[in-house]
Amino acid sequence: MAVLGQIRKRSIFLIIVIGMALFAFVISGVFTSNGGFSSNKPIGEINGEEIDYEMFNMMVEQAQNVYGLSTINAVNFAWNQGLQNQTLIQELEKLGIDAGKDQLEQIISENQSIVMNPLFQNEIGLFDFNKFTNYISQLKSSNPSMYNQWRLQEQDIISLAKQKIYFDLIKSSVIYTNVESNIQYHLENDKVNIEYLRIPYDMIPDSIFQIKDSEILSYLKNNRELFEIGEFRKLEYIYIPDVASSLDLNNIRSDLEQIRDGFSQMNRVTNNIEEIPGFDDVEDYSEYIEIYSDVAWDSIYKSKQELTSDFSDILFGLNVGEVFGPYRDGNLFKISRMIDKKRDGNINKVLIADLVKEISPSNESSNLSYRIASQAEFDANNDLPLNNDNSLSISSYDSFEDFDPGLPALSNSRQVIKWLHEDQTRVGDVKRFTLSEGYLVAKALSFNKKSLPSIDEVRMEVSQILLREKKYNFFTDKNKSKDIETLSKNYDVELERASAVTQYDPILVGAGAEPYIIGSAFSLDNDETSKILKGNEGIYLIRLISKQKAEDINIASAISNSLSDQEVQRISTLIPEVLESKAEIVDNRSFYY
Length: 593
Known about the structure:
By secondary structure, the chain is α+β, with helices and mostly antiparallel strands. The chain has 4 domains: 2-173 and 584-591, no CATH class; 191-228 and 455-548, no CATH class; 232-243 and 363-448; 247-358, no CATH class. Helices cover 42% and strands 21% of the residues. The protein has 19 helices and 20 strands. It has helices spanning 2-10, 53-67, 71-95, 101-108, 112-115, 129-142, 144-173, 178-189, 213-222, 224-227, 246-261, 285-292, 312-316, 363-381, 414-420, 455-478, 484-490, 515-521, 556-582; strands at 13-17, 22-26, 44-46, 49-51, 191-199, 232-241, 262-267, 272-277, 323-329, 332-344, 347-358, 395-399, 430-435, 438-448, 496-501, 507-508, 512-513, 533-534, 539-548, 585-587. It has a 4-stranded antiparallel β-sheet. Strand 10 (332-344) and strand 11 form a beta hairpin. Helix 3 crosses helix 19 and helix 4 (101-108) packs across helix 7. The protein is extended, with a radius of gyration of 36 Å.
């Protein structure tokens, strides 16, 4: 059932069977158009089966509601989990795996919300599967809607049962022999005590070697899988924030100062000038806040620790009736008035009325930002730089996936990525976007195919790899006939010791992981010194002081079972990935989100 639990955790939909509180994930055919929903606009395909957009969108909304995910994260969650589940379902169908009543009863009997329901228990309080099936049969006539919901849930349970059969078959085929278990036992428990000389690579000067560009290029080609860059599209952009200017801030502060002290205004009904009292004098402060504040009054007594403002010390120390402000608190300007103080148990609390103005750009500031963005768009469309007036910095972004969530640190910028990957977008195209807090002007720079990076991009990384190889060969050629003590003296490096080292955890203190070096030690006889060895962190010679072989004990079957369980767990995780990697997938998410 551990595998079954993992499958449930990876599944997509959450369905509740009304009245039974049967909470589970839907993982059967509803991910594709076979689930009873249809759409003329599939969001993708899995091995030829269309993924219905309407159903997929329901899954996205459910992921948002249940897990609180953003739209893009919910889309990715639904897509990734759906691919895993659907490819597995297709594999079960291909293999002809089916489940019957016994498997259905087993899964239902393990759901505590059903087992503990008195409706389905016999006279001695035990779950009775016949009572459960009778209840379902009665639903068909008494509550057809609820019965249809159960039928959907039943298909899910059958699907879970099929998957359990599948993973049980895998589990039964995973066997570790006693020989394999014995090898693993000795890897973990055989130990060596060694003496070693480590010559760090940086002791040999880089300056005596030359790394040619042809060598770097040859290394890149021979290790293409490590360095190859996937297809990507590149854009450059400028961002024009639509924020309050310094003049806007001063105006907001001045308005609050007038509200604090009182001001005169024309009464449009009487056409007379009337005097409005200030916040520090008004009697009905709650009504005053309702009229002049952008935020409603929070009429709750708070301790000093509950006052989150940077000015909490000043606010807590005000006298009753005293007013403080205007002051800035995040994206707000406030004036605060002490209304009351009281002792609540052992805690002093205060009641403060805040009159708040949100900091937002004025129409003039917003219009200026719009004009700047429009001018940048015009310039770029006429082959001028995006920052033609040099007032804004240009940023660039490489998009490797058409479903990248957006540009770094810019909310609501998914639309930019979507535009970049649209079929009609061409290199050199320019577009202006309205984001949550400003404008962005983007230009498509290049569409790049899969390729190796340039030599300059990997020069430092590859040069270090090649330098280590050259230094090892240089050291070996120069010191072929010298013993470990002579080398220790010549290079002024002390011999070090390591005790109780195993192949299972091949760590040398001060050097880190050196599996090749430790493995070599196990091939030596006592007092034998190795040849010169190339390690991760230096050049080594090792001398075996002693080897401790663990005593053979008769626990091979227990080890075999443990190793088998670990392997089943590993395979259970890999199977969805393998099935997905073999599947023919069409991804149209970027058309919709």
